[in-house]
């Protein structure tokens, strides 16, 4: 049933790192040929976590259509001489995504449920399944390959993919700091003003400085000196 046309459930999705082509109903060999001939692509080769996320994120954006949506997809990984290899000749890294080899077969499928971590399993290559053609935009390894958990990866790459998602955080932090500084200055000015008003409202008896200036009288000082100096008390 090879065809040069797209099936009714076909969808092309632009991801951050590449372009995904969603198809249904081919065995492994025919699926790869279809990718090459119709999409000028190949079955998805995912050598790092960033690419895995990009493929899965593209799947997440696929409309929820019960007629078209699948759970198992052929990807570009198969077994040769008891070793898993990518269709482009690259070596499979089992530390990134292990393959469940409890099923017979030499080809690998990606099992996906919306919102969950994907799993890979070994399947019979002649089985009919949906498949994912993927054209990567770059061959350079990404720093996100060091991320090993899908949940952490999802957050990291989503943030990296959209600079706009970072800007509100930075703007919020800066705005919060400026607001806190302004609030502190306003409080300092408020308490200084209250203290000044309180000092101005004190009565002379309560304010030592005012009290001292009011009680000073030169006549009192002269009387005191007369008592102290006997010369002023002598009769002439």
Automatic annotation (TrEMBL):
Keyword Transmembrane: yes
Membrane-crossing residue ranges in chain numbering: 169-192
Domain (C-type lectin): residue spans on this chain: 5-134
PROSITE patterns in the cross-refs: C_TYPE_LECTIN_2
Highest rank taxon of the organism: Eukaryota
InterPro entries, A to Z: C-type_lectin-like, C-type_lectin-like/link_sf, C-type_lectin/snaclec_domain, CTDL_fold
Gene3D superfamilies reported in the protein's UniProt record: Mannose-Binding Protein A, subunit A
Keyword Transmembrane helix applies: yes
Keywords in alphabetical order: Membrane, Transmembrane, Transmembrane helix
The protein's name: C-type lectin domain-containing protein
Source organism of this protein record: Ciona intestinalis
């Amino acid at each position: 049933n090879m065809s040069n046309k797209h099936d009714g459930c076909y969808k092309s999705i632009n991801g951050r790192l590449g372009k995904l082509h969603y198809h249904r109903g081919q065995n492994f060999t025919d699926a790869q040929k279809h990718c090459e001939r119709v999409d000028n692509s190949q079955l998805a080769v995912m050598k790092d976590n960033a690419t895995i996320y990009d493929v899965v994120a593209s799947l997440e954006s696929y409309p929820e259509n019960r007629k078209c949506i699948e759970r198992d997809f052929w990807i570009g990984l198969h077994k040769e001489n008891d070793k898993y290899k990518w269709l482009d000749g690259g070596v499979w890294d089992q530390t990134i995504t292990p393959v469940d080899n409890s099923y017979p077969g030499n080809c690998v499928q990606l099992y996906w449920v919306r919102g969950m971590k994907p799993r890979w399993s070994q399947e019979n290559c002649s089985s009919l399944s949906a498949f994912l053609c993927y054209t990567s935009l770059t061959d350079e390894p990404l720093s996100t390959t060091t991320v090993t958990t899908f949940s952490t990866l999802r957050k990291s790459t989503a943030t990296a993919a959209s600079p706009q998602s970072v800007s509100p955080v930075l703007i919020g932090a800066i705005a919060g700091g400026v607001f806190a500084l302004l609030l502190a200055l306003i409080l300092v000015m408020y308490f200084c003003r209250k203290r000044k008003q309180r000092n101005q409202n004190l009565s002379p008896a309560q304010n030592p400085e005012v009290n001292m200036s009011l009680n000073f009288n030169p006549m009192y000082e002269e009387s005191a000196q007369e008592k102290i100096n006997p010369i002023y008390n002598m009769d002439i």
